[in-house]
Amino acid sequence: MRVLHELQGKMKEENIDFYIVPTGDPHGSEYTPSTYKDREWLTGFTGSAGTALITLEEGFVWIDGRYYIQGEKQLKGSGFQMKKAGLPETETLEEAILRLAKPQDTIGFNGKLLMESQLKSLKKSLNKRKVFYKDKDLISPLWKDRPGLSKEGLFLLELQYTKYSASEKIKQVQDILWEKNLDGTVISSLDDIAWTCNLRGKDIPENPVFYSFMVITKREATLYLPVEKQEREILDYLRDQNIYVRDYDQMYLDGKNTRGSRLYLDPQKTSATLYKNLEEGNEIHEGINITTNLKGIKNELEIENQKKAYITDGIALVKYFHWLKNHGIGTKEFDAQIQLTNFRKESNLYIEDSFTPISAYGSNGAMMHYSADANDSTRIEPKGFYLIDSGGHYFTGTTDITRTLAMGPLTEEEIRDYTLTLKSHIALATTVFLENTTGNELDAIARRPLWKYMMDYKCGTGHGVGYVLNVHEGPHNISRNKINVPLKPGMVVTIEPGVYKEDKYGIRLENVYVVKEVGESSDGKFYGFEVLSYVPLEPMAIDPSLLTSDELDWLNEYHKITYLSLKDYINEETKDWLKEVTKPIGD
Amino acid sequence: MRVLHELQGKMKEENIDFYIVPTGDPHGSEYTPSTYKDREWLTGFTGSAGTALITLEEGFVWIDGRYYIQGEKQLKGSGFQMKKAGLPETETLEEAILRLAKPQDTIGFNGKLLMESQLKSLKKSLNKRKVFYKDKDLISPLWKDRPGLSKEGLFLLELQYTKYSASEKIKQVQDILWEKNLDGTVISSLDDIAWTCNLRGKDIPENPVFYSFMVITKREATLYLPVEKQEREILDYLRDQNIYVRDYDQMYLDGKNTRGSRLYLDPQKTSATLYKNLEEGNEIHEGINITTNLKGIKNELEIENQKKAYITDGIALVKYFHWLKNHGIGTKEFDAQIQLTNFRKESNLYIEDSFTPISAYGSNGAMMHYSADANDSTRIEPKGFYLIDSGGHYFTGTTDITRTLAMGPLTEEEIRDYTLTLKSHIALATTVFLENTTGNELDAIARRPLWKYMMDYKCGTGHGVGYVLNVHEGPHNISRNKINVPLKPGMVVTIEPGVYKEDKYGIRLENVYVVKEVGESSDGKFYGFEVLSYVPLEPMAIDPSLLTSDELDWLNEYHKITYLSLKDYINEETKDWLKEVTKPIGD
């Protein structure tokens, strides 16, 4: 309550009538490290998403369906009221402002934490009201003990993992700048910078990136790096790659001093503050970052390495599944996921987990973003489904895989739904498609077998996966979002349909695929999906009578290769188990 | 050549440096009657699409792939040069202007024949050049013998065919105006006006519409009708429906005199001239015409009637197919299509054909928009495929159907491709889908079986169909175009995948479906397709080994109902034939 009142005092001083505190960092990152958790500090609500709006009298936080209960609890005593986001009957933040704001009112925000695209969308929603906007950080003066960034240094990803050097990648970007007649591009997205420089960091848990900006002009490249990260050997390496180094904070000032240039910016990844600094006196061209498009298409070496990473990962999973089938009953979900991470750690190429595993027994599996509580998670019982969605960062690539296992007897409904999920998965995995087809156009192919039974999963079908980088990566995905990015050879993407039945169970079957060319005819080039992940499915949960002969062939071939790929890296007992679960079905 | 020079003379008088002559009428109609064939009169090129650009020295016509040969021939001696549209290596009209135009140049056009959306798109392409735009009709002063509109009068569609009266439909529009806080809407699209007024006309061949504008305000409705169409009984009827009548040309002036209103306009259906007149002093809200969305969802009576129309149409087709199988060999394509129209005419509900039939033997079928020449069409031989795409307007509805028939022995490739086309058709026809799904999202489901064999059809999968109205009707369709209109119950749509092999054959299997609700679950409402067309498929062309048991079930059930629906309306001989071709396959 005190903090809210202090902020309202600051607002009065600055003549700000509404103050917005979003969730995010100055780079449009998916995960927010503690340094930038302004909203959490202000409201006490710890969820991964949510936006606070403060008026001179009140405070609100928009919180989505995942966090209604937690939000209610955590906001107690803060003076903030919860607004349920995502419900048609609840007003949105924009609607609240439209209801409360008078002409000439001022809306404030820290423009470093708000992406330019978010600000533009806000302005569009409010364009009927004549209001003013003020970019002003009111939180820092109040938040005396704001934590700093991670102290961890950067590390290099060698050419044996990347194929191309940083200077070669910069050259690729520069070629595109020449082609598009642009003077330069300012990159804020951290995974793009990590990819370009062949460097990795540990500033965001589970995303191996480091805080920085990068400017690439037709002839030069500059990395804006916090002083404390400018270690000798990193500076030497960057000099070798012809990359200039400047201090991180200098970016805003350099942006302001740039004039007369044709600049390329990604409004979804550039903060409103930086965008404004760059906009004055320059001609801005907007689009997805050039590096995002380059990075999205993996080269042959990256694909070869990723295939190895999936074998490494498959070994850990098979060990885990075998352990789980023998020792899982009575184990808590959280303890189980620790065991899995330990199996992953057995590889000397392992760096860290690529995200916090979703280790969910029974009805917990129905919550798509469930996270087992370290101190109080559910015990696995000898029946029904256990869902495990996990992945690792290895020097050879990043993995992401979901399997749903039978921990004992299954109901007919569970078997039917598992089999339908498998049909969904196979339908898309076996699709051949014409060039220039987007993931959005293919999405319904995966949903069709579930739709037939009036079931739908309320999330995307698949997402891009980084290479020793973020587990969620653009520019492409497979979903109902109208993202106009065609799938191209070299793009890596998950296929992960599922069935989620509240208070009952969740089923998700996720593999990672790489798009490859399958041939060309007079009608054009045709592409398909090549599977990277080899991990057994659950034979106990499959009803062969619901599968066509083509689907059974796919399943048996997949299991055959899984066994052959993994059998030499596991002990005899595990191998016998693997042989059993991968034996042909339905003949 | 003389006409081109005269036009260039006029351009000089008016200080116009570039003059654009598009194909179209003042209402965004798909087909252009002779009155508005300015481009054809000017250039001599008679194709259904194409745009002329005249500079002070030269003349060009952009002509698409269907008409390259015809265009070349017809432009000889006109002074116009052909530009091949749709090829990446040919410059577009906009690129030509960008290359030739100097700052301050003036681009002229007749704004009545250019839709506002086309003008906006032109301006957007040219926004780097500082040019001026001038709306000026330079053709009419030169085209002394411009033909008039059709002299045919209007006719009424009774309530037994429409269910709702014109005044009830106007009330529906007015409710939406109130809801959206709009003062009125100005409707230019002729099928929308015909639907609203329950009137039909014969101003455009095969589209039963009449030239008019319509203004609906919160409290009034006005029809702008050419004086010569204002017959006594039509005026009486309109008065009964509380529709005011004004003269057609008065629309432009009334538009100019409207002030201070919030007006709703469809920029794809409103001419640049009318848009400009309405824009001054009013607040324009843009979107698909309100009536287009209302009209797109058929009411129960319309659906019942349409089912009858498809039976009526099916009878004609079965008679035709039986005739064709017995007398078709040696017949010319054009003579055959006359025979089909004659069978349709046997019904007393028949009004006219809903489009010129595509009667295409052999390799002619590979041309998607083939039209048999009345004097010189191909003779049907005793082998291979004959494709017939046709439809009729009946008082009970509008039909559109395509079948591909074996006229004798087929090759293995022909049988495979026919069967794959059938698989494509069935895949989409049997899809159940979640509410809020667009045709664009479903399109790939139809293409998938063909893509697997690296084949693709270069057109949409399906289009809306009018009710005693245009055979192509929005707002929805099923195609690769990113039209964001979800399919809703009551929408009528074709499914028409195909295989087109240049110089060999064409296969297209088209039925018409109505979207219906199939049920609701905790995941939402689910919709599916109910077939309206019952016309037999070609058993000789089907390889049952390529079909799954579900697909065979669909086919046999479809044939069973086809036989039962039509058998009582045909003679014994035809009935025997129908029984034979609809008997179960693959058991």
Features:
homodimer; 587 residues; alpha+beta; 21% strand
Q: Could you write a compact summary of the structure shown?
A:
Two copies of one chain form a homodimer. Chain A is an alpha+beta fold and 587 residues long. Helix content of chain A is 34%, strand content 21%.
Describe the structure in your own words.
The structure is a homodimer of 587-residue chains. Chain A is an alpha+beta fold and 587 residues long. The first copy, chain A, is 34% helix and 21% strand. The first copy, chain A, has a 6-stranded mixed beta sheet. A 6-stranded mixed beta sheet of chain A has the order 12-11-10-8-13-14, sandwiched between helices. The longest helix of chain A is centred in the middle third of the chain and has 28 residues, at 300-327. Chain A is globular and about 75 Å long. The model of chain A has no long low-confidence stretch (mean pLDDT 96).
Oligomer designation: homodimer
Number of helices of chain A: 18
In percent terms, what proportion of residues of chain A is strand?
15-25%
Whole-angstrom Rg of chain A: 25 Å
Mean pLDDT metric of chain A? 96
The most extensive interface between chains reads: A-B, 32 and 32 residues
The biggest beta sheet of chain A is recorded as: 6 strands, mixed
SSE topology:
Two copies of one chain form a homodimer.
Chain A: H1 2-13, E1 18-21, H2 38-43, E2 51-55, E3 59-63, H3 68-75, E4 80-84, H4 93-100, E5 106-109, H5 116-125, E6 132-135, E7 155-156, H6 159-162, H7 166-179, E8 184-187, H8 190-197, E9 199-200, E10 213-217, E11 221-225, H9 232-240, E12 244-247, H10 250-257, E13 262-265, H11 272-279, E14 283-286, H12 290-296, H13 300-327, H14 333-345, E15 350-353, E16 358-361, E17 385-390, E18 392-394, E19 397-398, E20 401-406, H15 412-429, E21 433-434, H16 439-451, E22 462-464, E23 473-478, E24 492-495, E25 498-501, E26 505-508, E27 511-521, E28 524-531, H17 549-566, H18 572-581
Parallel strand pairs in A: 1-5, 3-4, 5-6, 8-13, 11-12, 13-14
Antiparallel strand pairs in A: 1-2, 2-3, 7-9, 8-10, 10-11, 15-18, 16-17, 17-20, 18-19, 21-28, 22-23, 24-27, 25-26, 27-28
Helix pairs in contact in A: 10-11, 13-14, 15-16
